[in-house]
Amino acid sequence: xxxxxxxxxxxxxxxxxxxxxxxxxxxxxxxxxxxxxxxxxxxxxxxxxxxxxxxxxxxxxxxxxxxxxxxxxxxxxxxxxxxxxxxxxxxxxxxxxxxxxxxxxxxxxxxxxxxxxxxxxxxxxxxxxxxxxxxxxxxxxxxxxxxxxxxxxxxxxxxxxxxxxxxxxxxxxxxxxxxxxxxxxxxxxxxxxxxxxxxxxxxxxxxxxxxxxxxxxxxxxxxxxxxxxxxxxxxxxxxx
Length: 240
What we know:
It contains 7 helices and 18 strands. The protein is an alpha+beta fold and 240 residues long.
């Protein structure tokens, strides 16, 4: 499970460093801040952040609003605006780009925390899904851990097991996570390479190392195959 990564785009160095320091203290992974539109695009392509904080007023010809529109058009992740201007014209221009949150300078550490959480939540509500405090955005689950979201990429999941009103998510690093959700709910949200093999199990078909008559192997892990799920499983395996 990875930390949620954040890119800060802010042309005032001291403010940028303060934001990064606070985000790091909150438990997020924070990339080196960038100062302008061009450097921001290069950082987005290289780092692939989970979320970006964009100052509206940037050095150079293009603004944070221009950058927000570029992210909206060509990339697929949430962003929030940061500004000391709260005049109606600025707000109206910002709203056209549909940011997931808006933070006004000066702000506190708690306000920064709230804005990031709100941006992730709002983006998941529109493009993915929300289950209790857990989010699904693109090809990853964002789970609340110690008050901060952590990220599980679908590719890191080996299999999922039902545990009453919860599911247990077993990861490639040997760890597991408990999430309040049902297998019926989660199978609709996972990637196409996940398959229900039993009323109590979903597996990552890319992790299958062998298939027996009534079970399959994920390296040393043996998972039962339900009779009613065999046909779907074999269809999926033939496509791998």
